[in-house]
Write a structure and sequence with these properties.
CATH architecture of the largest domain in chain A: 2-Layer Sandwich
Largest sheet of chain A: 7 strands, mixed
Shape of chain B: globular
Number of strands of chain A: 28
Radius of gyration of chain A: 28 Å
Distance between the termini of chain A: 63 Å
CATH class of the largest domain in chain A: Alpha Beta
Strand content of chain A: 15-25%
Helix content of chain B: 25-40%
Number of helices of chain B: 5
Number of domains of chain A: 3
Strand order of the largest sheet of chain A: 3-5-1-12-9-10-11
CATH class of the largest domain in chain B: Alpha Beta
CATH superfamily of the largest domain in chain A: Aldehyde oxidase/xanthine dehydrogenase, molybdopterin binding domain
CATH topology of the largest domain in chain A: Aldehyde Oxidoreductase, domain 4
Oligomer: heterodimer
CATH topology of the largest domain in chain B: Ubiquitin-like (UB roll)
Number of strands of chain B: 5
Order of helices and strands of chain B: EEHEEEHHHH
Strand content of chain B: 15-25%
CATH architecture of the largest domain in chain B: Roll
Radius of gyration of chain B: 15 Å
């Protein structure tokens, strides 16, 4: 078998080292959940609700049970599990948290809710059996729009509550109304940040193996949070956490959708226990569009009180967040992240915020790449452009005048921004985008019959989640620290075990680079293990652009502990004081006598031999760290987009895109740029292509990749990516996080560009996604005669 | 009811007994253990299951195993030769054209077919040619660049 060679220069921090993850993935030797086969393994399939809201009046399983190869047909009654899918978020203290049963109990509340689980010898038979089950439904009135759900006469999603309100998030600074009234201009803006479907290329999937004789259960699952899954499987399936092992093999993307625990994880464990065999379930793509969380779905209204020069004196924000039918792991916290980022990168001292969260007959929403922060940035950056438009100012100038300039800075919602230099990133983006000469390009395009526009987006995001005291204070019942173990083997090779759980981010490579630099060992001598709760110290997982800022810091600290242990052994062997030693190039040596020293690999051998250790020092060269960050990190940047619009078709084409991001210090620039590309494109996809649509009765109208338009290479532009570097003081590596920057920044840049392009027609606003029919209609409505302008 | 088929996969002949409705991708993955070929959707939309059938890129989830009877199939496991990796595999690594790696086998197989005998292919042609393959991680830019690099490399080989 041919293999690739890693060709690192030194493999250290700051180099674009090629990824060690790639070798197996490019020859088809990745191991994803669906690739796993266990002895005697059976397959699961589900009968799911075809209605958005209905009462179940009968279930006839006889035809399914009669099929050869069917091992079990399970309803909620057979399961007998009292618990439900957990929600770890209660941001208001009185957030309504309706139970989400594993299988529907009498009522289905969204299209795709699982009602019956079938276990059979293969996936074809399981599907046949699920389709053979006859379920009688009595359809009930449904509501799918968050605003309509909060109307007084709306159908109730959960009959035990008097209305569909989940909770209300509120925050207002003292003297807000006076400050608002004092400014000469008021600018209003409204947006719908539409619902979207995450679409990781690998759907969810599980293999559960419950060994009845021992009570041990191993769950292989495609997740971002293996330890969370283990904890909750122990709770819901009523066993001991020490009996549960969760293994996360290669994961084909997550984007927040796998920052969760799902019914099928608990159900597969329960079913494996019942049938006495391993059970595999692999989500179909069409099933996934119903059964995996959606993102966004937030209606927003802004009112800004501004000075004539565009300075924002006070900002009022009102929103309705559509939570869907149930709460998943962090559902109520997602729009809480929106609340945190309402002021964005601007010094807005007076603020008033109210977000009402609604239950509807739709798939639950939860974290999708950016998770509440894209919503905040989109609304704010559209507002800033509307301020510039109404006051006749340059949008770049309005941004510059409002930027926060001194750091650390405590915002009007109470966050402390760690470091920043927003103006430099803006200037760099404008320079790369040739902002000064844009009008020439606009005129040239007009000569070709096309409308060309340019749009900016400046952002700051909250990453590095999170100080554990803060997660508790904001109502999340899980901490925010991360763990690492660094283990040196007898001859100096290194194993890193990280509590984070990557799914494409390249941790094995970046973590190896950190060890190579900090421990002075070759890049190829480092192996990184993750995603197996039997190996790893408890970890909180990979999400919220947190891994490098939190898990990276945990790794850094474990490396330092190992290094210091090596120092103690070196001092003992060299018969000097530890203070007489200095560190360079992977060696401790006596100051002034560099030939008298020992390599860290040699010291690892000494620690293993253990025959000549300092008194009281334990053998072995290994350290574990649980790192709780002292603050969040706050990456930032400015993106500039140029679009051209064909008025005949309404097609919006991105013809230029510049991303200038500042994620602090960078371990691997190639990986960072890859994250920017992916994030920007995912956000352009939301701006122009993607929308999850429900009919009024709760039917999902985008149930497959045929109706739901994920763009391809043919639809998308090249990205020009650059960075400024403002290290974070929050962690020893000075890193901030980059995973979500593109998804946060791009939507408003694209929409601002499209609105700018059509401003000549008097168009001031476009809703996402800016699909051709919608843009064509806007052009036609603005210019009914079709006369050239 | 089962049908007997004979297919050649990565140069090795296999005799299989399959249900007539069995998808080719399941025969490859489950009957032959070649799990490099992935299933990403159920509507022929994503291209993750792309393999070569007698040299042409096809979707193995949109074809029955019985339809492949007597035909020759190459999967991602058969893309490299004794002489080493296919240039597109090397280019994907060197251009950071994969992140999670789930779409990668399909991208490699679609890309390899696209550049075969077409070393001067343009960026626009690559983008059009990969229209049937979705990637959610990379934003496509590095994939497109890798395919172009591999195309030029095949001309030099």
């Amino acid at each position: 078998m041919a293999t690739i060679e890693h060709r690192p220069a030194s493999g250290g921090i700051g180099e674009s080292v090629l990824r060690k993850e790639d070798a197996k993935l490019i020859v088809g030797q990745g191991r994803f959940v669906d690739d796993l086969v266990l002895p005697g393994m059976l397959h699961a399939a589900f009968a799911r609700s075809p209605f958005g809201h209905a009462r179940i009046t009968g279930v006839d399983r006889s035809a399914a049970l009669a099929l050869p190869g069917v091992a079990a047909v399970l309803t909620a009654d057979e399961l007998g599990i009292a618990g439900g899918v957990p929600c770890a978020s209660n941001p208001t203290g009185d957030t309504r948290q309706p139970r989400q049963p594993l299988l529907a109990e009498g009522i289905v509340r969204y299209c795709g809710e699982p009602v019956v689980m079938v276990i059979a010898t293969n996936r074809y038979t399981a599907r046949d059996a699920a389709d053979a089950i006859v379920i009688d439904y009595e359809p009930l009135p449904a509501v799918v729009d968050g605003r309509k759900a909060l109307a007084p006469d709306a159908p109730l999603v959960h009959g035990q509550y008097p209305d569909n309100l989940c909770c209300t998030l509120r925050h207002e600074t003292d003297g807000f109304e006076e400050a608002f009234a004092a400014a000469p201009h008021v600018v209003r803006s409204a947006n719908f940040n539409q619902r979207i479907t995450p679409v990781s290329m690998e759907t969810r999937g599980v293999v559960a193996d419950w060994v009845r004789a021992s009570g041990e259960v191993t769950l292989y699952t495609s997740t971002q949070v293996p330890h969370f899954v283990r904890t909750f499987v122990a709770v819901i399936n009523e066993t001991s956490e020490s009996k549960v092992r969760v293994v996360t093999p290669d994961v084909g993307g997550g984007f927040g959708a796998k920052l969760n625990t799902y019914r099928e994880e608990y159900l597969a464990c329960a079913a494996s226990k019942i049938v006495g065999a391993p059970v595999k379930w692999i989500e179909d793509r069409s099933e996934s569009h119903n059964a995996t969380i959606h993102g966004r779905d937030q209606h927003q209204q802004y009112e800004a009180a501004v000075e004539a020069d565009g300075k924002i004196r006070a900002l009022r924000f009102r929103a309705v967040q559509n939570n869907g039918a149930y709460l998943q792991l962090l559902t109520p916290s997602i729009s809480h992240l929106t609340v945190f980022m309402v002021p964005g990168p601007y010094a807005i001292e007076n603020i008033s915020i109210e977000v009402r969260q609604a239950f509807t007959n739709t798939t639950p929403t939860d974290a999708y790449r950016g998770a509440g922060r894209p919503e905040a940035t989109h609304g704010l950056e559209r507002l800033v452009d509307e301020i510039a438009d109404e006051l006749g100012l340059d949008p770049a100038d309005v941004r510059r005048r409002n930027f926060i300039e001194e750091f650390p800075y405590t915002t009007s919602v109470g966050l402390s921004y760690d470091s920043g230099d927003y103006g430099t990133a803006l200037d760099r983006a404008l320079e790369l985008a040739c902002y000064d000469t844009f009008e020439e390009r606009r005129a040239e395009a007009r000569g070709r019959g096309r409308y060309r526009g340019i749009g900016l987006s400046s952002y700051v995001e909250v990453c590095g989640l999170a100080p554990s005291a803060v997660t508790k204070a904001i109502g999340i019942s899980a901490p925010g620290w991360e763990s690492s173990t660094v283990r040196m083997h007898p001859f100096g090779k290194v194993t890193v075990i990280t509590g984070s759980s990557p799914h494409g981010q390249g941790h094995a490579t970046s973590w190896s680079q950190i060890v190579a630099t900090e421990l002075g060992v070759p890049f190829d001598d480092v192996e990184v293990i993750h995603g197996d709760t039997a190996f790893a110290p408890y970890g909180l997982g990979t999400y919220g652009s947190r891994s490098l800022a939190v898990a990276g810091a945990a790794l850094y600290r474990s490396v330092q502990k190992v290094k210091e242990k090596g120092r103690a052994i070196a001092a003992h062997e060299l018969e000097c004081s530890v203070d007489d030693l200095e560190w360079a190039d992977g060696r401790w040596s006596v100051k002034g006598s560099p030939e008298r020293g020992a390599t860290i690999q040699g010291l690892a051998t000494s620690a293993w031999v253990a025959a000549n250790l300092p008194p009281g020092l334990e053998p072995g060269m290994e350290a574990t760290t649980f790192h709780d960050p002292p603050n969040f990190t706050f990456p930032f940047g400015t993106h500039v987009c140029e679009v051209e619009i064909d008025p005949e078709t309404g097609r919006v084409e991105v013809v230029g895109y510049v991303a200038v991001d500042d994620c602090g210090n960078v371990i691997n620039p190639m990986i960072v740029e890859g994250q920017v590309h992916g994030g920007v494109i995912q956000s352009i996809a939301q701006a122009i292509f993607e929308e999850t649509v429900y009919a009024e009765d709760g039917q999902l109208r985008t149930p497959t990749l045929v109706e739901y338009q994920v763009p391809s290479a043919a639809d998308l532009p090249r990205i020009t990516s650059d960075r400024t570097v403002t290290p974070s003081p929050v962690n020893p590596l000075g890193t901030k996080g980059i995973g979500e920057a593109g998804t946060i920044a791009a939507c408003p840049a694209v929409v601002n560009a499209a609105v700018d392009a059509l401003s000549v027609l008097g168009i001031r606003h476009l809703e996402m996604p800016m699909q051709p029919h919608r843009v064509w209609e806007a052009i036609r409505n603005a210019n009914p005669t079709g006369a050239a302008r | 009811m089962r049908s007997s088929i004979r297919i050649t996969v990565n140069g090795v002949e296999h005799d299989l007994e399959v249900e007539p409705r069995r998808l080719l991708v399941h025969a490859l993955r489950e009957d032959l253990g070649l799990t490099g070929t992935h299933v990403g959707c159920d509507t022929s939309s994503c291209g993750a299951c792309t393999v070569h059938l007698d040299g042409d890129a096809v979707l193995s989830c949109t074809m029955l195993a019985v339809q492949a009877n007597g035909r020759s199939i190459t999967t991602v496991e058969g893309l490299a030769t004794a002489g080493g990796l296919h240039p597109i595999q090397t280019a994907f690594h060197e251009r950071h054209a994969l992140q999670c790696g789930f779409c990668t086998p399909g991208m490699l197989m679609a890309g390899a077919a696209l550049i075969e005998g077409n070393p001067e292919i343009t960026e626009a042609e690559v983008r059009q040619g990969l229209e049937g393959n979705l990637c959610r991680c990379t934003g496509y830019q590095n994939i497109v660049d890798a395919v172009l690099v591999a195309a030029r490399e095949t001309a030099r080989a």
